[in-house]
Amino acid sequence: MQRLKVLVTRRWPAEVEARLADAFDVTLNETDTPLTGAELAAAMGEYDVLCPTVSDRIDAAVINGGGRVRLIANYGVGFDHIDLAAAKARGIAVTNTPGVLTDATADIALTLILMAARRAGEGERELRAGKWSGWRPTHLIGSALKGKVLGCVGFGRIGIATARRAHHGFGMKIAYYGRRPCEDAVVQELQAEFCPDLNDLLDKADFVSLHVPGGGETANLIDAAAIARMKPGSYLINTARGGVVDHDALAAALKSGHLAGAGLDVYPAEPAVPPALLGIENVVLLPHLGSANAETRIAMGMCALANVEAFARGADLPNRVA
User: Which of 81, 241, 247, 297 is flagged as catalytic?
Assistant: First the structure.
C-alpha cells in the first residue's frame, strides 16, 4: 500500500518529524524558510496532506492551485489563516490542535499582565541602556494585581485557565464576556461575574485579556470605541489573534495615557509589528510566544500527527474544524 505524501511547511520538533517520517512519505522544510503562496499552491497538487502553521496563508488561491490535497492538518489551534469555505468547496478536511496549548498560552497571558502592570519591559530597557540611576521611591511605579478586576473577553479553555491563575495566584477578581454564561462550577470556583454586554465588561475591568478566535465577527472587536470605553488607567492584553485589535487606536490610547499599558503576543500581519506601537514605552511586545515551551510544541505536533494518522486510516478526524 502506497504511503501518503505529506508536506510539513515549517520545522516541527524533532520527535514529531521522526514519527511522521516513520509513518508517511514526508517532505520536511529543512531550512525552515516560509513557503511562498506559489509554492503552497503547487504543493496542493503534489501531496495528499498539507501540514501548515499560522505563518502560512492558505487562501482560496492556494487551495485552488491543485487538486490532490485532501487534508490540511494545521499545527496550531487558530485557523483564521485558512480559507475554510474554499477548502470545503474542494472537499478538503481541515484540522487543528486544540487543548494542548491551553496552559502555555495562559502562562503567557499572565506574563504579559505582570510585565505591563509592573513596567518590567521599560525597566529592563532602561537598565540595559545604562540609564538606571538607582532605586528611588517614584521610579517606574506600576499597578498591583490583588483586588483588581481581570475582564476576560472569551471564556473558553484558555480564558478560564488565565482567570484561574489570576484569581488563585494573585487575588484578582474575575469578570467575563461571552456568548453564554460559563458552567456553574467554574463560576463558583472563580466567583466570576458574567457580562452579557462587552461594554459592561470594559466599564469595570482593570485588565482586559482577549481570548477569542480571529476573523469573522471578532475582527476589530477591540476598536477605537471599545478602547475609549475601557477604564482610564487600565491595561489591554492580547494572546488571541492580532486582527481582534485596532492597533492605531491602541497606540493613541497608550500615548494619551488613557490606557496605562498593554501586552501583546500576536499581530495582524506577522512577523510585521504595527509601526505605531514600536516607539511606545508602555506596551510589552512579544514575538508570538504563546505556545513556546518544549512540552507544548511537541504535544501540538503529536496532535497534528494524530489527525493525519486518523485520515490515513479513514477514521473520524479527532480535531476537525471543516
Answer: 241
Q: What is the pLDDT of residues 158-169, one digit of tens each?
A: 999 999 999 999
How many structural domains is the chain composed of?
A: 2
Provide the whole-model pTM. 0.95
265-300 pLDDT, tens digit per residue, is: 999 999 999 999 999 999 999 999 999 999 999 999
Q: Could you tell me the residue range of the domain that residue 59 belongs to?
A: 5-100+294-313
Q: Which of 143, 273, 165 is nearest to 211 (CA)?
A: 165
Our answer to whether residue 288 is catalytic in this structure is yes
Q: Does residue 79 lie in a domain region?
A: yes
Q: Which long-range contacts (CB under 8 A, 24 or more apart) does 316-319 make?
A: 317/71, 317/93, 317/95, 318/95, 319/95, 319/96, 319/97, 319/98
- To the query of whether residue 295 is one of the catalytic residues in this protein, the response is no
241 is annotated as an active-site residue: yes
Distance between CA 83 and CA 44 in Å, rounded?
A: 14
Q: Please identify which of the residues 46, 183, 270, 281 carries the catalytic annotation.
A: 270
- C-beta of residue 279 within 8 angstroms of C-beta of residue 256: no
Asked if 37 and 57 touch (Cβ cutoff 8 Å), the reply is yes
**Are 265 and 307 contained in the same domain?**
no
